[in-house]
Design a protein that fits this description.
Blueprint: H1 3-17, E1 19-21, H2 22-29, H3 33-45, E2 49-52, E3 55-58, H4 74-77, H5 83-94, E4 101-104, H6 108-116, E5 124-127, H7 130-136, E6 142-145, H8 159-165, E7 170-175, E8 179-181, E9 185-188, H9 194-202, E10 204-210, E11 222-225, E12 232-235, H10 241-248, E13 253-256
Parallel strand pairs: 4-5, 4-7, 5-6, 7-10, 10-12, 12-13
Antiparallel strand pairs: 1-3, 2-3, 8-9, 9-11
Helix pairs in contact: 2-3, 5-6, 6-7
C-alpha cells in the first residue's frame, strides 16, 4: 500500500470514529511506530487532523459546538463526568489556598470543581452560574453570585454582571473556553462573555486555564485574549507534546495530569 493510500484510509477512520492512535495504525497497516508517527505528523501539518500525544483527533470546524450545549446549565452538561475532566478539576483545586478569592468558570469544569471542592476549605468564590452557586451552597465557602439578567442556561452575561465583576479583585481565576492555541490564544464561538472574561483576567493576580487535550491546538471563531495571559495551563497527559511546548515557550507553566 502506498503512503497516500494509507493516509486516505486513516482520514476515513478518523472521520468515522473521531480519533485514532499510533498503536491502531501499527496494527491496521503492519507498520512501525516511527511510520505511524510520521503519518499523523504529515496529516497534522496539512491541517487535516488534530495531533494528540499518541494519536490524532478529528479536526473540528472553527465554529464547532455540540448540539444544544449553549442552552444547558453547567450541571446539565455534566451527566457523565469523564476521567480527564475530573483529573483537571482536581489539579485545579490543588492550586486553591485557604482564604483565596477566586473566580470560577461557568463551564463544565467549574461545576466539577464545585462538586469536588473540600467541604471545609474556606474561600470566597465568585460565580455567574446558578447551578454552580447551588452546588457551592453545600460547602463552607463564601459565595458571591454576579447577578444580572439570567440566560436560559442559568448564567449571567450582561452589563450588570460586568459592572459587578469590575468591583472585585481575585487571587486566582479558573477559566476555560472552546479552544486554545499558543498563536491565537483563548477563543470561543460567541461574543457574549468575551468582555466578562477579560474583566476577570485583568482583575486576577493569577490566571489558570483548564483545557482538555481536545481543546488544545485548535482555534474557535473569536479570540478572547492572547495565550500568555495564563500563568498556569492545566491539561491532560494525552495532550500533544509539541502543543504543550508552544505554551511553555510563552512563559506559561503547563501542568499535565
Amino acid at each position: 500500500m502506498f503512503k497516500e493510500e494509507r493516509h486516505t484510509e486513516i482520514l476515513r477512520y478518523i472521520e468515522e470514529n473521531g480519533k485514532i492512535t499510533t498503536a491502531q495504525i501499527q496494527r491496521m497497516y503492519s507498520v512501525g511506530y516511527g511510520t505511524a508517527m510520521n503519518d499523523l505528523d504529515e496529516l497534522s501539518e496539512k491541517g487535516l487532523v488534530q495531533r494528540t500525544h499518541g494519536g490524532a483527533l478529528k479536526l473540528k470546524q472553527v465554529g464547532y459546538a455540540p448540539d444544544g450545549i449553549r442552552t444547558l446549565s453547567s450541571k446539565e452538561r455534566c451527566t457523565v463526568i469523564t476521567d480527564n475532566y475530573l483529573a483537571i478539576a482536581r489539579k485545579a483545586i490543588e492550586q486553591i489556598e485557604k482564604n483565596d478569592v477566586i473566580y470560577l468558570t461557568s463551564a463544565s469544569l467549574g461545576y466539577i470543581i464545585a462538586k469536588e471542592l473540600p467541604a471545609d476549605l474556606f474561600v470566597t468564590i465568585v460565580v455567574n452560574s446558578i447551578s454552580i452557586a447551588e452546588e457551592l451552597r453545600q460547602k463552607q465557602c463564601r459565595v458571591i453570585v454576579t447577578g444580572g439578567e439570567m440566560h436560559e442556561n442559568g448564567n449571567f452575561y450582561d452589563d450588570f454582571t460586568n459592572a459587578m465583576l469590575r468591583r472585585i479583585k481575585f487571587d486566582k481565576c479558573f477559566l476555560t473556553s472552546a479552544a486554545c492555541t499558543a498563536s491565537f490564544g483563548l477563543s470561543v464561538q460567541t461574543a457574549r462573555n468575551i468582555g466578562q472574561m477579560n474583566i476577570v483576567i485583568e482583575n486576577s493576580r493569577q490566571v489558570i486555564g483548564m483545557y482538555p487535550a481536545e481543546k488544545l491546538g485548535r482555534d474557535s471563531i473569536l479570540q478572547i485574549c492572547p495565550a500568555n495571559v495564563m500563568d498556569i495551563l492545566i491539561t491532560e497527559a494525552e495532550a500533544d507534546d509539541d502543543v504543550c511546548a508552544s505554551f511553555t515557550e510563552l512563559g506559561v507553566n503547563v501542568i499535565q495530569v
